[in-house]
Amino acid sequence: MTSDMVAKAPAFPGYTPISTRIFIRNEASSSDLENTRTKTTSNDPTTILVYGWGDGSPKHVAKYSEGYHALFPSARIVVIINPIFAATTQLLPQRTESMRPIIDTCFPTKDDGSERVIMHIMSNTGGIYAAATLNAYRERHGQDAALPHHLCVSDSTPGSLNFTSEVWRWSRAMAMGVPRWFPLPFKFTQALCAAFLSLMNYLAIAMGVEPSGVHSARIFTEHGYATPRALRLFCYSKEDDLIYWEDLEEQAANARNKGYNTVLEEFKGSPHVGHMRMHPEQYWATILRCWEQAMAMDEKA
């Protein structure tokens, strides 16, 4: 971590930046940390990686970190903030480099079986940078190395990868992140975002570059990158207007066919990445249940 990184990092009270976009939750004191560790079990996660949705603010993404801290007080919790613009313009080497501080800080050596990790991914933008983290781990520790994790929570992701049918919904998500002072009406802003995304898609095709969303979906079904030992939990609702539930169920079925154990959890009436906000008890109970299931799977392996 450099002083330049810290200087440019957004204000995020209670968290220490390790880059401009990656933050580790602070413990109140060393004695508090020691007290929580005495209460933990050998099956609690050691590290939790929380990938925020596109343009999600630290204040809002931190609510997931706090929820995890309530469940697993001794776990190291890392929050990753993900701008949509970067996800659509950066090439894989740039995306990988931006996630390298996670590997340097949390996984500096190759897995020896001691790590118990949860990856919590929100929306497609979160998935893009989670995939970049998997790539960064392999680049650091070798092509035979997959980032160790036991549970992968996919909240409102992944959806369809068909650009033509999805571009208007993706542009809506991008337009929602535009500052309020931007002078154009929302529909015009969305149209500009759609034009921008279309241009980026055209350039990717012309250059023979795999689009970031397609890459992330592929990587998470390749055992060499995403370990099949990890349980997959898909959280979704039929009211999500950005990720259609049929597409998400199809992606979950594809993961299952590729050898991943999957769990689908439907939330009634909640919007895109709004399941925890509307149904907190169901949300955290589901994650705890799936973590216990993942630990049981690991013991049998």
From TrEMBL:
Pfam families assigned to the protein according to its UniProt record, in alphabetical order: DUF829 (PF05705)
Q: Which residues form the signal peptide?
A: none
Q: Give the matching InterPro entries.
A: AB_hydrolase_fold, DUF829_TMEM53
**Protein's name in the database:** DUF829-domain-containing protein
Organism encoding this protein: Xylaria bambusicola
Lineage start: Eukaryota, Fungi, Dikarya, Ascomycota, Pezizomycotina
